[in-house]
Design brief:
single chain, 395 residues, alpha/beta, seven-stranded mixed β-sheet, two-stranded antiparallel ribbon, 12 helices, 14% strand, elongated
Length: 395
């Protein structure tokens, strides 16, 4: 019992002090931005077997001017989509003529949702933790957005370089509830799906990534023409207008993010998914009721302590009575347990959309071997000073 508690004390001190030393920030960040579930998303999902989500059509705005975007909206609206989501923020007015054309296109569209963002003090608006009460909602100029609904496009992450794993479907700000960009779109497209999302009462949802670009219907800038008969596919769909590079063949960093689908899930790599495609994955998850449920941290810690306690019983037994075999036995058990725990995490995620922070179980077991040497010294000191009884005297 005491040796198990010491492991958690060492883990707490390590987390509180070592990872708060600034010269160790690169190490801290490398561990902090890696999740074991990334292995599942990056390496184990057979993306070729994933079906195309035909509920959603993504349209690239490329380097279009405001007039060109207005023309895209007009053409798309003629093909009667269920709802259009415009993932662009027009914060300022520019050319009066082009602004008027854009405003007319937006106001005449039958059902359109604009984008805004939660601006957090001293941080970039692209990705932020949404729990800051001082956040300010910033959207398109009222010239474009008056009487038009808008939803924030923020994801939940600590920096632009962090992997996007979560988003907030609803945010309470200044005693008012705001809907995210995707929540507005779902509300218009499928009321029952929206109600399921609302009833979960989660401040943050884990994004269940299932699709890369090739699993969505994506139209490039030059495909949005009235004479294009293929645009009939837009009818009754969610149409997302957003940035996918100058064209679909040119990949750029702008509005491109790291996700668990990145083939290089640890270490430096290029961002792998545009923001509008992340929104599409969120919409797919909601429509397919593919929400990921996370086991509460306190329950994982409780399970971790029980599992560690059982390991420590046998580790101590070998340490005291068969010390020559202690390291071989303990290292083998560590490896076997780690593999089993990771396997369980990946299995329940793939089969039941259920996840747990398995590192809370694995790390204490890894620390336990070395902590036992420390514990050995402590109890022998206590025996010498206070006649403390311990098995370790036999060693």
């Amino acid at each position: 019992m005491f040796s198990s508690l010491l492991v958690f004390l060492v883990l707490f001190l390590f987390r509180s002090f070592v990872f708060n030393i600034h010269f160790l920030d690169p190490i801290s960040n490398a561990f902090h931005d890696f999740k074991l579930s990334d292995i599942y998303y990056s390496k184990l999902i057979d993306h070729e077997k994933t079906t195309v989500d035909t509920n959603i059509v993504i349209v690239n705005i490329g380097e279009n001017s405001r007039e060109d975007i207005a023309k895209q909206i007009e053409i798309i609206d003629k093909f009667q989509p269920k709802v259009i989501g415009l993932d662009v923020v027009f914060e300022e007015r520019k050319n009066p003529l082009s602004d008027i054309v854009l405003r007319e296109a937006i106001s005449n569209a039958h059902n359109i949702v604009l984008a805004n963002y939660l601006n957090y003090p001293e941080s970039d608006h692209g990705n932020n933790n949404h729990h800051d009460s001082e956040a300010e909602l910033v959207g398109s100029h009222e010239f474009f957005s008056q009487d038009v609904r808008s939803g924030y496009v923020n994801f939940v992450a600590e920096s632009d370089q962090s992997t996007i794993r979560k988003y907030a479907p609803f945010v309470e700000l200044h005693e008012h509830e705001y809907l995210s960009f995707t929540s507005h779109l779902i509300k218009d497209y499928n009321q029952k799906a929206f109600e399921k999302l609302s009833k979960r009462h989660n401040e943050v949802e884990i994004i269940n990534y299932k699709r890369k670009n090739n699993k969505y219907i994506i139209l490039d800038v030059d495909e949005i023409k009235e004479e294009n008969a293929n645009l009939n596919i837009l009818k009754d769909k969610i149409v997302l207008l957003g940035y996918l590079g100058p064209d679909l063949h040119t990949n750029v960093i702008e509005d491109n993010h790291y996700t668990p689908l990145n083939p290089k899930y640890n270490g430096k790599s290029l961002p792998d998914m545009y923001g509008v495609v992340i929104h599409a994955n969120i919409l797919s998850m909601i429509l397919e009721n593919g929400f990921v449920t996370k086991l509460k941290s306190w329950l994982v810690l409780f399970l971790s302590f029980i599992i560690l306690y059982l390991h420590m019983y046998y580790f101590i037994k070998y340490y005291v009575h068969r010390h020559i075999w202690y390291h071989v036995f303990a290292k083998f058990v560590q490896l076997l347990t780690s593999v089993i725990i990771v396997g369980i995490e990946i299995y329940i995620l793939s089969k039941f959309n259920f996840t747990l922070n398995s590192s809370l179980i694995i790390i204490p077991i890894i620390l336990s071997i070395d902590v036992l040497y420390f514990y050995d010294g402590i109890v022998k000191f206590l025996h010498k000073k206070f006649n403390y009884n311990t098995w370790f005297l036999e060693h």
